Amino acid sequence: MAPLDATGDQFAILPIQMPPVASFLETAIHEVRIRRNAPKIPTANDSRSLFLKNIPADSTEPHFRAIFTDLVGAGRFETIIFEDDNRAAVAIDPARATKIAGFARKRKRGDVEDEERAEEEAARLPDIWTRQLHRSSSTAVVLLADDKSVQLVLKAIAKLQKTKKYPVWGQSISGDVQSLGSPWVSAHLRLCRANKKEIQNATHAFFNVFNRKEKEAAELSKRLRNEPDEDGFVTVTRGGKVNPANQFEAEEARRKMVEKADKKKSELTDFYRFQLRERRKQEQADLLKRFEEDKKKVNAMKEKRGKFKPET
Description:
Pfam families: RRM_Rrp7, RRP7
Strand content: 5-15%
Organism: Hypocrea atroviridis (strain ATCC 20476 / IMI 206040) (Trichoderma atroviride)
Number of helices: 8
Protein name: Ribosomal RNA-processing protein 7 C-terminal domain-containing protein
Low-confidence stretches: 1-8, 87-106
Strand order of the largest sheet: 1-2-3-5-4
Distance between the termini: 60 Å
GO cellular component, one term: UTP-C complex
InterPro entries: RRM_Rrp7, RRP7, RRP7_C
Number of domains: 2
Mean pLDDT: 77
């Protein structure tokens, strides 16, 4: 088994005992692969989160809460985010970064984000499944209470390889998990007959969100055409439109816009480029001067140590 503290493609293996069901009357072992979470775009919660691979298709939050409670006790599991939970009703685009960069100064940023979140929630169509299944070999991210909890979980998984006392899937879960099988399919058929008014409201909300995002994308495109970057280059766009971006590109654009805004705030004292160059030259000169002074002190200490003669 790979080292438990590895963060690359090396995973620890969590064996889970799958109880027999009507379609398969034997106990099986399902292996979930776990490692520390290391996304491409780092977040503040990476140190207390775990990346899970090959989760069972019928996974729910209560299932994993029971598993982690069995491993390290109650109170350390916070939540779990499944791979398909990140899909929004309307694709996220880089235009949202404009609000973080200062376009929505007239109103508080929190109020704007809350209204947008509520608007996007209203744009979702009603659920027609009482319980979501996941595709084979799906992934998830578990958020724990702290970094110590992550270490305890990894140590508990290592002990399972010796004790062979694997946690049982679905044991001690709360009763709010909907059962599968014929009741699940019957509920789906019933929910497919959705209320016409609800569908109409969700459709109108969807297009309201879509039009707002198109407007924000146009504003961002206009700004990119007119504003040079730190190297003096201007982004070239075609037709005043910004192509749709996936979530990774949107988060990357958001991060760059925030960094750019913070950098502008720190450089308000030196408005012109030549002032920036002069300040950087001065900082380099000060750094070199301190280095030479430290070097002289070290040489002086060496000479002093060489002249020292202990009494005999």
